[in-house]
Design goal:
Elements (H helix, E strand, L loop, with lengths): L12 H33 L11 E13 L2 E12 L4 E2 L2 H8 L2 H19 L6
Length: 126
């Protein structure tokens, strides 16, 4: 075992770095999803704390939901909107994200990840 000191552990730094990068991508996507949902709720209900006599929808807090991001199911605090009559209103972007087939997204992500890894590898490793 050339280049190793006896008793020294070998750390899979490449694997750890890949996992950390993957987590960072998923977390940033999650932040984007939450921001988009809040913006959509503001369009449906109006700005937060604004007095609007013609208001047709109210904010209804949040409810726990989950989406598949990066091939993993993650918890999301989904914003709620309710009509003046008390009926739950769906946010179109939530309907789109929650209806996605996890395998399709995972296949796309893995393909993108593989291409990025190939282009980042040194020419001698290809």
């Amino acid at each position: 075992m050339e280049g190793r000191v006896e008793g020294q552990l070998s750390l899979p730094l490449c694997g750890l770095a890949s996992a950390a990068l993957w987590d960072a991508v998923v977390i940033s996507r999650l932040a984007l999803v939450e921001e988009e949902l809040e913006e959509e709720r503001a369009r449906v209900c109006g700005p937060r704390y604004a007095h609007q006599p013609e208001r047709r929808a109210l904010r209804g807090g949040h409810v726990e939901g989950s989406l598949v991001l990066g091939g993993r199911r993650v918890k999301v605090q989904r914003p709620r909107a309710r009509s003046i009559g008390g009926q739950e209103l769906s946010l179109p972007s939530w309907q789109g994200w929650s209806a996605r087939v996890p395998l399709d997204e995972r296949a796309l992500d893995q393909n993108s990840w593989a291409r990025a890894s190939e282009s980042a590898a040194p020419a001698s490793a290809r």
